[in-house]
Structures are given as C-alpha cells and as structure tokens.
Amino acid sequence: MLPPALPTLPPKDPPSRGAPPRRVLVADDNAYMRKALDAVLRAWDFDVVAVHDGPAALAALREVSPHAVVLDIRLPRLDGLEVARRIRADPATSGLLLIALTGSRDARDRAASLDAGFDHHLVKPVDPELLRALLDGSAASEAADPADL
C-alpha cells in the first residue's frame, strides 16, 4: 500500500520506440518511502534504481547513468547534500536533474539544498504531480510547490 501522498496514478503514455530511457535514481533511507517512490515512478514508465544511503547512491550513479536523481537530504553515512555536491563537482554528472526530498520545512534546509546544487527542493509528503512535472521537465521552477515556499 502506498502512502496517501504518493497515490498510484495511471501511467503516462508509453515512451515511443527508440526514446531514451527515463531512468531515475532514488536514495532514501526510509524503506517505505523508497518503495513508494519506486512504485509510483515505475507506474509512470520510469526505470528506477532505489538505494538506501549516500555511498550506495554514488556507486549506483556510475552504474546506471540516470537522467535524474531524487535524494533524501538526511541520508546515513553520506548525506544527500554531500552527494549532490559530489554529483555537481563531477563533469560527467554535473548536468543531472537533482531533486531534494526532506521531511523538514525549515528554510535553512531549503537554502542548504539549493546551495549544494539541487535543482528542486521538495518537502515530504511529496506532491506526486509536482514530482512528475519536475521529472518530465514541465515544471516552471523549484518554487512551483507553494507548500515549499
């Protein structure tokens, strides 16, 4: 069962043959959240690799070449902020779409995530349609979610 904030939604139109894979790396230490994001993203026809901590995120990044990374900012062993800094510092990954997830509405966390290089900062529970729009590149900005202002 998925949390109410991440309902199972009908999949988008299937990608056309020959379209590049829509691969997302998800890193969250909360197994329930990780599984919920995995299920919702797969329902939207994304290929998903889900990991539980910062070092696993960096290792998976090299193996799966995602087009986007969704990171909890409070990951164990290596937090999401440091993972984002390392992604941005590497020319091979510096252009990836980075989306921060957090349970905190603290403005300092938002500023820290944007300073670390995240493109967007989302507060849990995540608005699934906003996440979908960000991953599809159709959201206007990281401020698209009024709850995160």
Structure report:
The chain has 149 residues and is of the alpha/beta class. It has a single domain (23-148), classed as 3-Layer(aba) Sandwich (Rossmann fold), CATH 3.40.50.2300. 36% of the residues lie in helices and 17% in strands. Strands 2-1-3-4-5 form a five-stranded parallel beta sheet, with helices on both faces. Helix 2 (54-64) runs parallel beside helix 3.
- Approximate strand percentage: 15-25%
Helicity range of the residues?
25-40%
Major sheet size, sense and barrel closure: 5 strands, parallel
What's the CATH H-level homologous superfamily? Response regulator
CATH second-level architecture? 3-Layer(aba) Sandwich
Annotation, overall tally of beta strands: 5
List the helices and strands and how they pair.
Blueprint: E1 23-27, H1 31-43, E2 47-51, H2 54-64, E3 68-72, H3 80-89, E4 97-102, H4 107-116, E5 120-123, H5 128-136
Parallel strand pairs: 1-2, 1-3, 3-4, 4-5
Helix pairs in contact: 2-3
Keywords:
149 residues; alpha/beta; single chain; Rossmann fold; disordered C terminus
Brief write-up:
This protein has 149 residues and is of the alpha/beta class. It has helices at 31-43, 54-64, 80-89, 107-116, 128-136, and strands at 23-27, 47-51, 68-72, 97-102, 120-123.
